[in-house]
Amino acid sequence: MTYRIFDAPDLRDWLAQRPDLSERLGGEAADWTIREVSDGNLNTVFLVHGPAGALCCKQALPHVRVAPDWPMPLERALYESRYMRAVAPAVTGLMPELFAYSPDLFLLVMECLTEHEVLRSALIADRVTPGFSAVIGSYIARTVQATGWVSQPFETGAHLLEQFSGNTALTRITVDLILTDPYRVCDRNPEPEAGLREDVKALQTDQVLHRAVGRLQERFLSARQALLHGDLHTGSIMLDGADVRVIDGEFATMGPVGFDCGLYLGNLALHLCAAPHKAAALRAEMLAFWKAFSEDLRSGLQNAGGDQWALSGPAARKELIEGLLSDILRDTAGFCGLEMIRRTVGFAQVADYGLCATEAERLLARQKALQIGRTLVVESASLRSFPDILSLMGL
Amino acid sequence: MTYRIFDAPDLRDWLAQRPDLSERLGGEAADWTIREVSDGNLNTVFLVHGPAGALCCKQALPHVRVAPDWPMPLERALYESRYMRAVAPAVTGLMPELFAYSPDLFLLVMECLTEHEVLRSALIADRVTPGFSAVIGSYIARTVQATGWVSQPFETGAHLLEQFSGNTALTRITVDLILTDPYRVCDRNPEPEAGLREDVKALQTDQVLHRAVGRLQERFLSARQALLHGDLHTGSIMLDGADVRVIDGEFATMGPVGFDCGLYLGNLALHLCAAPHKAAALRAEMLAFWKAFSEDLRSGLQNAGGDQWALSGPAARKELIEGLLSDILRDTAGFCGLEMIRRTVGFAQVADYGLCATEAERLLARQKALQIGRTLVVESASLRSFPDILSLMGL
Fold this sequence. Notes:
2 copies of one chain form a homodimer. The first copy, chain A, has helices at residues 8-16, 19-25, 76-87, 119-124, 132-147, 154-164, 168-178, 197-205, 207-222, 257-274, 279-302, 314-345, 359-379, 386-392, and strands spanning 33-36, 43-49, 54-60, 63-64, 67-71, 98-102, 107-111, 117-118, 226-228, 237-240, 243-246, 253-255.
C-alpha cells in the first residue's frame, strides 16, 4: 500500500484487514469508534476503541502539522518505531507497547493510554500525583543501560549509531531550534513581546553565552554516549496517577545522556518560572528525578559487562561511574538552560506561561527563565553536584 | 562476479575486462607483470605494471592472512573504499588515488606507489627524509576539517556515522587488541620473553592504569569527533623522499581525533625506545607533527562554517579551538601510551625492536616503552601542552 494521509474511514478499513490488530479491538469494524486527537506539531493521531480494547494510531505527515509549508520527511515514524523497539525491553511499563509499524504508511499502532493525561497539561491543571519524576529518572537510567557502551558489547552501540544517525530531519530541528536559533536573528523566531525585546537582543550578542552554547553544540554532536529519546519534555510524557509513560520517541539519536535529563528538568524549571508558588513541589520532583536517575545508573553500571570499563574492578568502576555522572551533570545543566531559553523565546514555546495571571507577571516569568537558563548554560562546565543546579534555579 | 580469492592470472583476466583500468596499464594483458607483495595482516596485495602505468590491487581475504583460522569479514574493503572517497578531496596528494572498487570481489584498485617505501622500514633502515611527520600532522588536520562537525553541516557527520559504524569487525580488533587485551590474561597475547613476565603481570593488576584505560575506552567509543583513519601507525604510511602517503584506511570509524594522533606518535616513540640514539631526530619529527597538526587545525577551523560553533565570533572561536586542541592533546597522550604498550606486549608487535643489538638491550627498550606508555596513559588527563608529552618520553 502506498502512502497516503489517512482519515478515520481509511484507518478503519486498514485496521479491518489486519487480524492481529482488529482482534485487539474486538467486534466488527463498524463497532469501532475512531477519534482524532492530533496535538503535537508533526503527526495525526487517532484513538480507536472497540468492544475488546483500544489502539492509538499515529501517522507521520509529510509536513509540519501546524505549518503545512514546512516539509518534514516521513521517515521519522521509522525512527520512532526503531526507538521503541530498541528500548522497550528495558522500560517495560514505562512506555506504551508498540503493536505494529507500517513502513509504507509511516504509521505506528500502539497501546492506547485512554486514562492518561499529558504531563504538561496535568502540571498546568495541578492534577499530578507527586513522584512522577522518579519514574523519568529511572527511565533514562534504564535506556542508558540498554544502549550505552558500559553495559553492552560495543557492537550494540555501533548498530544504534548506524540505525539512528540517518534521523537527520528531526536532529536538524534540534540543532536549529534548541542549539542555534534563539541566539541569532532568524525568521523562525517569533516576534517577542515588547517587554522582552531587549532580552532577546542580549541573547543574540552575548559572546560569553555563545561560547558556552558552542561547547554544548559540540557535546550534542560528538558525545555519543547512549540512545536518547531526544525530545523528553513534559509534553512527551503521559500519566495516570502513578502510571507514567514516555511517548513520542521520533527525535531519537545517539547523544549525551545529559540531553534527555536537561530537557526534562528544563521543562520543570519553566513551569517553576510560570508558577513560582509551586517551588517546594517542583524542587521535590527534581530531587526525586536525580536520585532515581543517579542511583539506578550507579547500580546498573556497577556490574555491567560491556566493552567500556571491562577491566575495572569494583573500586575503579565506582570512580569511573562517578566521573561519568559528573559529565552527565554538567551536560544536564547546560541542556536544561538551553531548553529554558528556547521554550521562552524560540519557535516552540510552552503553554505553562499561560498560568501567569497578568501580562506583567508573564513577562517577569519569561525574564526569570532566560536569566536562569543563561546562568545554567554559562556555569554548566563548573558545576559539581545536583544541588548546584537547584541553587542556580533559586531552589 | 562472485567473490573468490584472486591469484595473479585471475587478476590479469579481470583487469583485461575493465577498459578503464587496462587503459592505465597500456599494451596487452600479456605484457603486464604482476607481483604479489602482501605484507600486512589482512589482505593480498598485487602490483601490476604495464607499458603505460601501474596499479596496486588490494583484495580482502576472508580470514587474517597470517592466521587463517581467524575469520575476518570481507566488508572491510568496502569501508576502506568509503574512507578513501570520504577524505580524498581534502588530502589530494597525501594518499594514493582510488581508481576502482569492486564490491563483489572486495578489491580496491589504486595508484601504485612504486618508488615508495613503508615508513616503518625506512625508519628502521635510516632512509627517511626529515620532516615527514609534518605531512601526517597536516593530513589529520585536513581529515578533521573534511569530516568533523565544526566545518560541515551536521548532516555530513551524521552520514559518516551511518556509513562507518557498521565497520565493527575491524573496530572489534581495536577494542580488543589496543584497548583491552594487554591488560588482562588472554589467549591472543603472545608469551612474553622471560625478562618481561613481571612487567606483563603488572599491567594486568594495575588498578590505577586500568581506570585510566577505562576512561580512554570511553573516549574511543563515545567521542565521535571526526572520521579516523583508525590505524595510523608507521606501517600505514609510505614515503619517497618528501612524498608522503597514507594507506590502509580499513579501520576507519568516527572517533576521537587524538586516536589517530596518538597512534602515529606512539609508533615514533616505540622507534625511539628501540633506537634511543635517534632522540634528537625523533623529537624534531614529533614537534613538526604537532606544529603542522595544530596550526592547520587552527587555521582550518577559525572560519569554518559548520553547525558546531556557528554562533561564535572570532574571539570566542579562538577559545573554542584551543579547548578542542586541549581535549585532543589529552586523548593523543593516552592513545599514544596504549599503542606503545600493545605494540610491545600484545598480539601485533613492531619490528622496530629488531634494531636492538642484544637481547638485554631489547628487554630494556621494551621496559622503557611500557614505562613511558603507562605514564602517558595515567597522566594523560592532566597534560596541558605538547612539550608535556615530550617530557614524559624523556625528550
